[in-house]
Amino acid sequence: MHGMDFKFIWSTTATILIFMNMCQMCYSEVTNVLEYQKMPKLFTLDNYRDCLLRSGGLYCLVDVQLRAPTPNELWYQIKNYSANSGRHYRHDILQKGICVTKKCNITENHSHTIRDDKKVLEELLSDCMSIELQKTYELEGNVTVRYCEHEGNVRTLDSKDWAFISIILGILILNALSTVYHIWCMKTGITKYNEILISFSIILNWKRFMSRSKANKRSFHSIDGLRVMSTVIIIILHTFMTITYSDNTIVKDMKNEIQSGHLFDNISLVVQIFLCMSSFLMAYNFLTRAEVCPINIFTYFKYIFERWIRLTPVYAVIIGYISTIFEDSGRGPLWQDAVGDRANLCRQWWWTNLLYINNYVGDGRLCLEVAWYLGAEFQLFCYGILVLMIVWKFPSIAPFFFGFLMGMVVLIPGVQTYLNNYFPNVPLGPNLSVEFFQENETFQYIYITISGNIGGYTVGIIGGFLQYSLEKKDISLGKNKWLRISFYLSHPLMLIVLMSGSLFYGDGYVNNPLISAIYAALHKLIYAIFTMIFMMGCFHKCDNIIRGFFEWDGFRIVSKLSYCAYLVHFVVFSDYNASMMQPEDLNAHKFDYPDGACHLMSLRE
Predict the structure, then answer these.
(1) The whole model's pTM is what?
(2) Mean pLDDT for the chain?
(3) Does an H or E element contain 150, and which?
């Protein structure tokens, strides 16, 4: 078979899968749109600015638990629809931003009296909402207040805020002074710089930023492209996940109602690409340095400290920002819910982030959701260095030791899933988007832990060890028939593994502990193996077109920003969603093409 044959297989398979996805979605049974629209709107927000400009203005974000004094057809529809919370929003609990002053027509004095008495306030709002719901839907509601804001309620900067601002200003001053010193050295012809004084120079750091990394000098150019593309996919995924208040919830509800609507819900497997790249480079660099540096217990802690120093400065700035001035950077009906709670969590658990144990410690709540990866990756780094020290010390046992590790990485998540009857992956149902996985057991005990990610990391370690061994023997696999075949097949096979998660979203699916355990044990590992095959194919130049794309020089600079982008993007999304004055309009075009096509066809019916 020639290379073009495999390219044909790759492109054809991907096209067929996407076409099948579109067909199944468009001809599946979907929600009756007219029936759906009879239910009360799930998210509504009264005018926030207008409310707080009123004398005695009081604005509250609340949950309204619907009830029916006399059960009717609409109530049965709401109950039946909400029962399947894995696919649908719970329409028996409305989430509202209410201007209490206007909705309940209370006086300024009354507003001042009730705003500090939560029980009285909830009783008042329950009466107001019940009157409104009774008129339109013949329903009533019990209100639970999340939080309230009143006129003149403005948070002022405290000592912690000023401390953070001072640190940032100090860094900027160091940048300026270091840059001035660097310019002075260049103009006076001094070539021997003071390393400490020049380390913050903008000129020096810009040159380092634009230069190629050591990894790229060893023909690992494609890692830049792979890192950038994976980061983009993760950011896009988080864009959809962070939209919690939406105006037309039918778009999400309908997508989740169809099995093929979940084909890409397992897109978080892309995280395994990061783990493979990280562990591959860690293993390769460790083995290369081990040729000239002694390996002992002090080396172990030295590597860990170097890793901590490399990751922590930017991370600490982000955590510091969230803990302090982020809360003061805006206002809105959702601000306290989306930003205030996050700031409180960071103030309480900041130390777990800087010690990289936040995926285990913190009462199951993350102040920066994406930071679980940093904790898990740092812990896996400690594991990886230990593995490599053993392999370096006893090279003859490497094949057996790696085989043992592969067996363990399959066994651990499988047994854990089976014994606890966990779901095999993290379902992206609409309610989970709102709660952000804080109550999902699979997310808390598998997805963000070492046991849920050790497979991908171990595959990367083995890949780095293999690459190092091949280079030592001056062996290139570029013309190896089986690597070339595997390289071209890895693309559609990665896509198939990713889409396989939709098998667990069939109508009426009941979790089977054995099947879930097998899937949990294997799917991340298999995806990681295909990822490593793809990487090795690029490194050994099995293909010029695909490899050329990922080795494009433009990815080189952007890839150096991927870590910062990964940390910052969630803060930006939180700011955007917290600033919303009205629920987001989720039009079909904001989802992938098959979802949008199906949505339009269903409306036409």
Answers:
(1) 0.88
(2) 84
(3) strand 140-150
